[in-house]
Amino acid sequence: MSTDDVSVCANCGKEGNSNEISNICNKCKQVKYCNAACKKKHRHKHKKECEEYVSLAAQRAAELHDEKLFKQPPLKNEDCPICFLRMPSTTYGWRYMQCCGKVICGGCVYAPVYDNQGNTMNDCCPFCRTPPPISEEEDIKRIKKRMEVGDARAIYNIGIYYRDGRHRFPQDHAKALKLWHRAAELGCSEAYCNIASVYEKGRSMEVDKEKAKRYFELGAIGGDEMARYNLGVIEMKAGNMDRALKHFMIAVRNGYTGSMDAMRKLYSHGNVTKEDYTKALHSYQEYLGEIKSAQRDKAAATDEEFRYY
User: Fold this and answer.
1) Phi/psi zone of residue 237: left (φ > 0), alpha (ψ -120 to 50 degrees), beta?
2) Residue 282 belongs to a domain
């Protein structure tokens, strides 16, 4: 038996292999015993050390969690595949195309589409040039096809259809929740936000604030600015203003107007410094500069669906 294979009982000092010295402390998982009797005898001596280790481990785990939680998240959507500008973060300002699975900004959806001969193609997809569906049945068929190939947003959208009982889908909250879990696993951060709302408001199940917060955190880490805003509200209500401010600032940088409004109210009530409020304004203006274009302005002025600020 090599030295690396030797384990020592913390109570009696007996040496043996991992099979012989296999009774581990259930709390700290750091010390081993040859049997349950030795573990019991050593308990009073090990208690303080065990509690200290568990406390330090929990503290470090919380620190690592916060490092991940408050890190600037990835963008929820990639840049528009046509104009290559940053995609607006609001639920307006862009459209998901069920024909090809692309997310297109409102400016490019609004702009005219031409075929290879320069002829205008009315209402066709700006990316793949697919004509619009001629019926609701065809529209449903398209999104189901996208779901079959693992398109996270298609799965997320069908979950919404089940939640609301729209587009010939029966209202079924359990199915909606199952689909959102699947979409979240495939990278759709909005799905985590919807799951959190189910637990927060008790839709089709008991209210569970802890689970709601956990899923809001997963959504925020994934880049969903609404989930991030909700975490800010939760921390603000709990009196944790430093944590609330961090969440609001990240959501502002990602263009969430609700967080900018929250910062404005907090500043007016003296809960946020002028420096922090000014920083939030600059971050929001920087975001607006990144998403702005003349074509998007035209779309927003013509159709409320494409309002992006």
Assistant:
1) alpha
2) no
Helix (H, G, I), strand (E, B) or coil at 138: helix
Give 195's Cβ-side CA count (13 Å radius). 27
Kindly report the pTM of this predicted structure: 0.84
Give exposure, 75-107, as e/b (b: 16+ Cβ within 10 Å): ebbeebbbbebbbbbbebbbbbbbbbbbbbbbb
Give domain status of residue 40, yes or no: yes
Query: Which tens digit of pLDDT belongs to each residue from 14-33?
Result: 988 888 888 999 999 889 99
Instruction: Report if residue 8 sits inside a domain.
Output: yes
Separation in Å, CA 252 to CA 260, 271, 279 = 6, 17, 10
Q: What SS3 string covers 20-80?
A: CCCEECCCCCCCEECCHHHHHHHHHHHHHHHHHHHHHHHHHHHHHHHHHHCCCCCCCCCCC
Domain-embedded: residue 61: yes
Helical (H) or strand (E) element with 238: none
Partnered with residue 8 across adjacent β-strands are 15
> Domain tally for the chain?
1
Question: What are the structure tokens assigned to 210, written together?
Answer: 């802890």
94-118 per-position pLDDT tens digit: 999 999 999 999 999 999 888 887 8
The span from the CA of 253 to the CA of 89, in Å, is: 10
Signed CA dihedral, 173, 175, 179, 181: sign only = positive
- Angle in degrees, CA 192, 198, 200, rounded to 5: 100
**Count H helices, E strands: the chain?**
12, 6
Strand partners of residue 103: 96
Name the residue with tokens 């043996």: 16
Q: What residue numbers bound the domain in which 16 lies? A: 3-69
